[in-house]
Amino acid sequence: MGIHNAGSRKSHTKEELRFEGFLRGKKLKLTGERMAILNAVFLRNSHFDAEALHASLRDKGGDISRATVYRTLDLLVQCGLVRKNSLGSSHANYEAARDNEHHDHLICLNCNKVIEFYRPDLETLQDEICKQKAFKPMHHSLQIFGLCNECKDKADESKIRNRVAQLHT
Amino acid sequence: MGIHNAGSRKSHTKEELRFEGFLRGKKLKLTGERMAILNAVFLRNSHFDAEALHASLRDKGGDISRATVYRTLDLLVQCGLVRKNSLGSSHANYEAARDNEHHDHLICLNCNKVIEFYRPDLETLQDEICKQKAFKPMHHSLQIFGLCNECKDKADESKIRNRVAQLHT
DNA sequence: TTTTTTGCAAATCGTTTGCACGCTG
DNA sequence: CAGCGTGCAAACGATTTGCAAAAAA
After folding, report:
1. Are residues B110 and B85 in the same domain?
2. Which residues of chain B (53-92) touch nucleic strand C at CB < 7 A?
3. Entry pTM
4. Where in the sequence is the domain holding A13, given as residue range(s)?
5. Are B108 and B86 in the same domain?
6. Residues pairing with A94 in the sheet
């Protein structure tokens, strides 16, 4: 198999335990690749894409195929340990789901910074809207695109205008 | 050129005038293809994708290439006559921007119905959040996925759960 | 006539898949 | 040892692009 837990971790982390339970429940196998990917995901502290994750696994010495990275990210999303977002780009972005608290995103069109926020009143309002439309909400995604405080003044107007038109939201 | 305005329209519609002005302003050319695409867009009454639009143009006798359809949709988005959304799928969806009023979407994970809504208080709340984060909002996208009134009871639990995991939001 | 647009087909790019072999349970 | 999982490379599907021919200004 050739892939070890990075570093000297001996005991199972919370997320390892959860993933193991998930796999067992579905009669899927607990492989070294799957655990290595899980751990690589939880080593990151912000959003990333499949390509970057694949690259970082390669750097750590393991040589896990892109296909397996995609397949495993998929499992992790199903299992609730990873969240999948687009952040306005046409390819998928992921983030470790450390707590269970969902959040939404402010995305800077100039520097690509992502600011997370959580507002219970926003969630409540959405539930209210759904109730009114007799709709049962199961998932939602709110992304606000614009300029962060640092970019407010120094952004190229027409470049930004063009980016807005190209957003994949 | 071989492409005519569908039907017997003689005078310019509001959106034709706007598109013409936009093109002139950018020193771009007013071609039959561009006008045919604009009109095909405004003939539709809901969301569509580039492929469907291309097909409907073919049916009307014009034979406009997919490339031109994409290029023109792009112009229409820049010009504000068309809105681009993803609605959770991995390919782009479009809709004619008939009025200037933006709206958000409820999307049924079972039957794919799209319900539009506009809530000023939701917009206000978002502005408030942005102000608090010193963020200048320019565009936003809120999509709520779930089950519509008709599908609430008859939806296959695991199929839906799987769709949520695959959403491209 | 000059400049932009078009259609075509090839190129991209992220993602998925079929298959033969390898590992887990 | 019976299945699942993996890597590989090919397949995919939406979108984009280079280029020569065609149309608009």
Report:
1. no
2. 63-68, 71-72, 90
3. 0.91
4. 1-100
5. no
6. A48, A84
